[in-house]
Amino acid sequence: MSRLTLCGVCWLSAPLGAQVESYRVGGGGLSWDSQAAVAGGVDLQDPALIRPIGLAETDNILRSLDWSDSPTLDFVAEGRAHIWDNAAIEGSAATLVDGDEQTSSGDRFKGLGTDQTGRIFFLDLGASFPVNRLVYFPSSSFPDDFPRAFELSVNDGRDYTQQGAPRYQVLKRVDLQTEPRTAIDFPVQLIRFIRLRILSPNPFEIAEIQAFGTGFVPKGTYLSKLIELPTAAILGALSVKATKLRRQPDGVLVPTAAATASVDLTLRNGTDETPLVHFEIVDRETGSEQPTTADAYAKLAEDFRGSILDDAENWTWKNPIRIDSTGTFTYPLELPGPRQYFDFQLFFRGTSTDLVQIDSLAISYSLPLADRAVGEVAVLADPFPPGLVVAVPAGRDTLFTYDIRAEFG
């Protein structure tokens, strides 16, 4: 998990001994991009604000995404984009989505005497995008090296098998392709997963796969890095500034109270750097598991990877907060403390024209006045009972006294 240590950067100190400070993102504070651990379907180009990605007809969606050259592990969760293929050949599939038409898969699929039928390329966009055009082509240096037959399938990010894998629908199948450049146009539909299956044996290369569409992404996700405060502190209040917007036919965004959109915000704080507990399967027959570290979990074979659960013992969630109107809103956090770590998530929901934009987010926190405090309670009339054990009769009014000793660092 990404972690950010906060040491005197962008802090707003209150008077009275500088005990109340603030962590702020957007609106002149830290940039949204610098605080992101995972972002899917959201636009981070403007450091002052965050909102769902908006598309024009000429925008190649794939070029704007943050790609990982590895298979997706959780197909349901939204986040970073992934690309991979089924070829046991050295090389990266990331060149197919790097936005550079001069780079390509090269010689990976040009082996002498090798039947290329059955090669499959998988793309997970990380979120569902409104798409109406898909394109792929070879490099200009080898225009004749293109697949002569293919099947292109898609999934909207909502239809899954019982095992949680995307259930693909064939968008187009071509048994004889005669042009190097393949372009498929169709009515706008939501697409998250793309599967390109090669159906011809000939050697080929692909320089770029492109996707185009219009409108705003209806769903987006933002997960912050793990934030480490300078010391254990008590979180005070969350302040969020938001604006509801609607895209006009000419593309202009106008504040609109009636926009059908919202953002759900969740936040948690904890005592350590591991908000998740990872388990290793130690007995495949019984499914018996034991805790392990995140690093050790990542190195396990797939069939030995067990559950991943929230650490409910050391981490506490704040109930989700829904933001569905324009304004600046303040919410008391009421989370356990003092604790040194926290992170937050934003879940955007809207339509191709309606969205909520988050202009800023700030979290106040107060440093503890004492390192340790010990309290004692006693009966006022008998502060030192035998054995220092307090006993009073039930049902009778009794006056108590108390004393607190604080230790300061």
Protein structure class? mainly beta
Under CATH at level 1, the class of the largest domain stands as Mainly Beta
How much of the residues is beta strand, in percent?
over 45%
Number of domains: 3
Shape: elongated
Number of helices: 2
- CATH architectural category of the largest domain: Sandwich
Count of β-strands: 27
The helicity comes to: under 10%
User: Uncertain spans, ≥5 residues at pLDDT below 50?
Assistant: 7-18
Q: What Rg do the Cα atoms give?
A: 28 Å
What's the structural blueprint in terms of helices and strands?
Blueprint: E1 3-5, H1 15-18, E2 20-26, E3 36-40, E4 42-43, E5 51-52, E6 54-55, E7 67-68, E8 81-85, E9 120-137, E10 150-155, E11 169-174, E12 182-198, E13 208-212, E14 215-216, E15 219-224, E16 226-247, E17 253-255, E18 262-270, E19 276-283, E20 288-292, H2 294-299, E21 305-310, E22 315-323, E23 327-332, E24 339-349, E25 354-366, E26 372-379, E27 400-407
